[in-house]
């Protein structure tokens, strides 16, 4: 019996149309079984935080310090200020041991033994947080952690739409990546349409590429590799780069993104947010910064609109690297991360609503 991931890619290579067979690993989001799924109302009064101090998806040290830096900046206190009714639970940091592949290798996938193990542990943890009826906030760590966080969300909700906020598409495979760094591959690993672009990957048998790439929208792109652009165009992926943000404005970009990935308003929503989507002036302490990005105001608006759908179930905030830049750079970057996460938890720039009016004089 082939492992699940090998079977998945074998099914894809045989030419079976996606969603054609109920037994196919690459199931379709338009499968009739999804028609009966009703959108679950997210309990925004319960929030779970998971730290992933992981840096093996790329080569720069320090990104593993991101979760601690964000917590130390008072994240939980800032979220609690939204309302004393909020029940916030910190589930701590993911712990894992690197796998032993016994000599099995996959070319051009650096530190796979770490990525595979950490991602599996994170997937279980995210599912646990969501099953506990909480909005799940995952603090990275590099963007490779999205493999585990989105997989865990899929195990809970099955029908998921993803907004990927990033300067980069993270859509390379091991055969196209110029670096072999897995933080540039998570979307390609998650998307069922791309499962035949991969060889068998040891240690990843647990991970099912079942999300349709049509249920994902990019926002903030401005550094896309040639292969990634070819895949975006081939599959008609919803990609809103900085040119589109400038052309339409962030309000219209968010409206179009949500309409395209969840036209019926039925899907559980996941926002995977790379801090490098912000302009380097807003968030300088990150490993792969690119000039000309989102303003912090635009970044916050994305989170506010996602929260406003009532279906935002999970958020990743990744690639904050406190080892890069001056203390002021680090402060500005971490502060931006906290602003984004507080917005994702329901903070309104108009002011949060008081729980009681008893203090007002009649």
Automatic annotation (TrEMBL):
Enzyme Commission number: 3.5.3.1
Pathway the protein acts in: Nitrogen metabolism; urea cycle; L-ornithine and urea from L-arginine: step 1/1
Top enzyme class: hydrolase
Cofactor binding remark: Binds 2 manganese ions per subunit.
CC terms in the record's Gene Ontology section: cytosol; nucleus
PROSITE patterns: ARGINASE_2 (PS51409)
Classification via InterPro entries: Arginase (IPR014033), Ureohydrolase (IPR006035), Ureohydrolase_dom_sf (IPR023696)
Record field: catalytic activity: L-arginine + H2O = urea + L-ornithine
Biological processes annotated in GO: L-arginine catabolic process to proline via ornithine; urea cycle
Alphabetically ordered keywords of this record: Arginine metabolism, Hydrolase, Manganese, Metal-binding, Urea cycle
Keyword Translocase: no
Stored SUPFAM superfamilies: Arginase/deacetylase (SSF52768)
Protein name per UniProt: Arginase
Organism: Anopheles minimus
Lineage: Eukaryota, Metazoa, Ecdysozoa, Arthropoda, Hexapoda
């Amino acid at each position: 019996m082939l492992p699940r991931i090998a079977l998945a890619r074998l099914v894809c290579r045989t030419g079976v149309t996606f969603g054609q067979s109920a037994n196919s690993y690459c199931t379709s989001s338009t499968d009739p079984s999804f028609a009966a799924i009703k959108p679950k109302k997210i309990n925004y009064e319960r929030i779970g935080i998971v730290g992933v101090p992981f840096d093996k998806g790329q080569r720069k040290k320090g990104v593993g310090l991101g979760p601690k830096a964000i917590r130390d900046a008072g994240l939980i206190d800032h979220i609690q200020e939204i309302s004393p009714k909020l029940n916030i639970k910190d589930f701590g940091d993911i712990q894992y041991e690197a796998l032993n592949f016994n000599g099995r290798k996959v070319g051009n996938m650096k530190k796979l033994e770490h990525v595979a193990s950490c991602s599996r542990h994170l997937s279980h943890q995210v599912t646990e947080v969501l099953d506990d009826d909480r909005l799940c906030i995952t603090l990275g760590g590099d963007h490779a952690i999205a493999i585990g966080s989105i997989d865990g969300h899929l195990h809970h909700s099955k029908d998921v739409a993803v907004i990927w906020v990033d300067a980069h598409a993270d859509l390379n495979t091991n055969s196209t990546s110029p670096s072999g760094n897995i933080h540039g591959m998570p979307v390609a690993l998650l998307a069922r349409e791309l499962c035949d672009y991969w060889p068998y990957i040891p240690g990843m048998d647990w991970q099912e590429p079942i999300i349709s790439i049509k249920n994902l929208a990019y926002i903030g792109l401005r550094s896309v590799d040639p292969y990634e652009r070819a895949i975006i165009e081939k599959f008609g992926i919803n990609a809103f780069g900085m040119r589109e943000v400038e052309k339409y404005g962030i309000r219209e970009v968010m409206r179009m993104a949500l309409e395209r990935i969840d036209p019926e308003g039925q899907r559980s929503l996941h926002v995977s947010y790379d801090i490098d989507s912000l302009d380097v002036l807003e968030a300088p302490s990150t490993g792969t910064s690119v000039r000309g990005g989102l303003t912090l105001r635009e970044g916050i608006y994305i989170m506010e609109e996602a929260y406003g759908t009532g279906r935002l179930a999970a958020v990743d905030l990744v690639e904050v690297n406190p080892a890069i830049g001056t203390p002021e750079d680090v402060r500005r970057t971490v502060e931006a991360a906290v602003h984004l996460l507080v917005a994702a938890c329901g903070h309104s720039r108009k002011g949060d609503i008081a729980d009681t009016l008893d203090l007002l004089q009649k």
